[in-house]
Specification:
The chain contains six helices and no strands. By secondary structure, the protein is mainly α. It starts with a helix and ends with a helix.
């Protein structure tokens, strides 16, 4: 359902913010809390899968129920959010294992990326629920633009110790994958929009 999908989105956004915060502030307790929250996302994702199965099984055409095409796309979106949560988990895991001081320029970059990722996730889910393919297309362009800047994060020229290098590599890799999954949600919006338009045209024939 839309409500369950929004709950997944909320938990995932909190995991991203707290995983970044744990690595920025060397907060191992917060990192462990993020890792524990991954189970909440898994449970919610399972709930959405079951709801989809129930819609198929009952052939439900009740007004309050989602149609199967929409339900399928929400399930796929939830699955992408779950994968984003896995990368927040990865970042938190690195934060829990290593005590390191990150340089200021990296801290600023991470703070910026934290809020950017959360707003992209918020937008991607909103556009899916609104079936707004125009906005989803714009979002894909924005994501491509952000992705083009991430490579520099892992190959900064400044000398750094091994744990900082590891943090940079994990962060760059995970942020790139998160952006891919957000892009997938936008692609779902475009697909759903096409499917609904096709259905409407078929109904008019």
């Amino acid at each position: 359902s839309e409500g369950a999908l929004r709950r997944v989105k909320t938990v995932v956004k909190s995991m991203i913010s707290d995983s970044f915060s744990s690595i920025l502030n060397n907060n191992q307790d917060l990192a462990m809390d993020v890792i524990a929250r991954d189970n909440d996302v898994d449970r919610l994702n399972l709930l959405i899968s079951r709801q989809f199965t129930e819609i198929l099984r009952s052939g439900s055409v009740r007004q309050e129920s989602l149609n199967p095409i929409t339900a399928f796309n929400y399930m796929q979106a939830s699955s992408n959010l779950e994968r984003i949560a896995d990368h927040a988990h990865r970042i938190a895991h690195v934060a829990s294992q290593n005590g390191f001081i990150l340089p200021e320029e990296l801290k600023e970059e991470l703070s910026r990326m934290d809020s950017l990722l959360c707003s992209l996730i918020e937008d991607s889910v909103n556009y899916l629920v609104q079936t707004n393919s125009g906005k989803a297309n714009e979002l894909i362009d924005r994501i491509r633009e952000v992705k083009s800047h991430i490579g520099g994060l892992s190959n900064s020229t400044q000398s750094k110790d091994g744990s900082e290098l590891l943090a940079r590599l994990v962060l760059a890799g995970s942020m790139e994958r998160m952006l891919d999954y957000i892009m997938n949600i936008s692609e779902l919006t475009i697909n759903l929009s096409h499917a609904m338009n096709s259905n409407e045209r078929a109904a008019q024939l």
